[in-house]
Amino acid sequence: MSAPLAAKQCDKPLREQIAVVAEFHVYRIHPVRIAYRTGIELDLIKGLIAGQRDVRWFQHCLRLARQAKRASSLKASLKLQGTSRKQLQDKIEAEFAQPL
Question: Superkingdom of the source (predicted)?
């Protein structure tokens, strides 16, 4: 019995694959879904998330992805006004302060 095929084949170098996994992980996408959508090996994704592979580089990529998500969310919150804007910004900051 053969292994299930991924929807795509990933031809990116390892460091870029790790950065992609970090971007998806910041948005709390399930590892199987990341593998299906990107073509990255599921074992690599699970190893990164579990802290068993390329820990320093993955943590660096996570930090960058979280900062980018925070900046994007704060920029989007500027469309709101008054207390709803403040509440959303407080929620974004609280989420940013929590570990993944």
Answer: Bacteria
Q: How far apart are CA 11 and CA 14, in angstroms?
A: 9
With CA atoms as reference, report the closest residue to 39 among 75, 82, 6: 6
What span, in angstroms and rounded, lies between the C-alpha atoms of 13 and 16? 5
Residue 37: CB partners within 8 Å, gap ≥ 6?
7, 8, 24
Q: What is the DSSP letter of 53?
A: S
By residue count, the chain amounts to 100
Cβ–Cβ under 8 Å, residues 77 and 34: no
Tell me the domain boundaries of the chain.
Answer: 14-97
* Structure confidence by residue, pLDDT tens digits, 13-30: 999 999 999 999 999 999
**Alpha-carbon distances of 1 from 4, 5, 33, 39, rounded to whole Å:** 9, 12, 22, 20
Average pLDDT over residues 80-86: 89
User: How many Cβ atoms from other residues are within 10 Å of residue 74's Cβ?
Assistant: 15
